[in-house]
Amino acid sequence: MTDTSNALITSTSGKETQLNSKQAVFSVGAAVAAAAALMLIRRTTQRLAKPSSSATAAVTGASSGIGAAFARKLAALGYDLVLVARRGDRLEALAAELAAAYGIRAEALVADLTDDDDVERVAGAIAAIPNLDLLVNNAGMGAEGRFYQADIGPQVDMIRLHVLASVRLARAALPGMVERGRGGIINVASVAGFMALPEDVNYCATKGYLITFSKALQLELTGAGVRVQALCPGFTHTEFHDDLREFDKARTPKILWMPAEAVVEASLRGLARGEVVCIPWRAGRSSVSQASATG
Ligand SMILES: NC(=O)c1ccc[n+]([C@@H]2O[C@H](COP(=O)([O-])OP(=O)(O)OC[C@H]3O[C@@H](n4cnc5c(N)ncnc54)[C@H](OP(=O)(O)O)[C@@H]3O)[C@@H](O)[C@H]2O)c1
What we know:
Distance between the termini: 42 Å
Order of helices and strands: HHEHEHEHEHEHEEEHEH
Oligomer: single chain
Number of domains: 2
Strand order of the largest sheet: 3-2-1-4-5-6-9
Bound molecules: NADP nicotinamide-adenine-dinucleotide phosphate
CATH architecture of the largest domain: 3-Layer(aba) Sandwich
CATH class of the largest domain: Alpha Beta
Number of helices: 9
Structural class: alpha/beta
């Protein structure tokens, strides 16, 4: 387990134990409250702690960028992995590398998550993982052009990939997690999900969906031991912008870019402390508040 998770568990337990012991001396009511708090501590600790053996994380879009960074970090934490994307060669290579480096089990699941049959196949595989502890709905794509002129194919694919696949896989993962009383789902959205940008109409809309979906889902799962996060990165160094002809990376100030590894660290730290909307990007936080202020 990492120092980060340890520190979080220790600080949560320490604070609440101190609180409980103070309260317990005063009244029977306080004793009952203390017992309830202790149960909460146990439950919180159980949720945050990496189990001793064979917890599994499923990561979509693991063949590059943020998804690959999640896979590396989770393997280092000791998770077994199910890695999903279209480029099987990349998934196989990463799975083999991580299995050898960390002694975990890693499986490559080749799937196009814009395809209904593939999504159902992955959903079935995810539902069947007996100890699924984390699902990272990360696979994503960009598309260019004004909506009324753009090819409709990529626009619809984006809705399928960002919205339908994420919803389907979350639905497949959750019953087991709720039954076990532990687990987490990270939906990789974007700061664009708080915005309404021309020529990014569907990107903003689909990422906005993931933010609202995550927030409402977390409310629904209150007390179930399952955490949900909408991860909202800003500009991140990955392959994402490579195919976007109209996007010139060199024209975006360097200071606005983050490494994928830093995004993943912020996400997992945030998940451990129950952060439902995680914006790992300082500049992103201010642009989000500006966007909210201007409606
Ligand atoms: N980079 C940024 O600046 C940034 C900012 C905010 C949010 N994000 C979000 O972060 C997530 C990860 O993107 P990234 O930046 O890491 O970009 P990336 O390096 O291009 O990775 C995208 C991943 O999604 C997978 N993918 C794409 N289409 C797929 C499909 N139809 N079926 C299955 N997998 C598919 C790709 O794998 P295959 O091609 O092998 O299928 C790849 O592994 C996305 O949701 C993106 O919207 C990125």
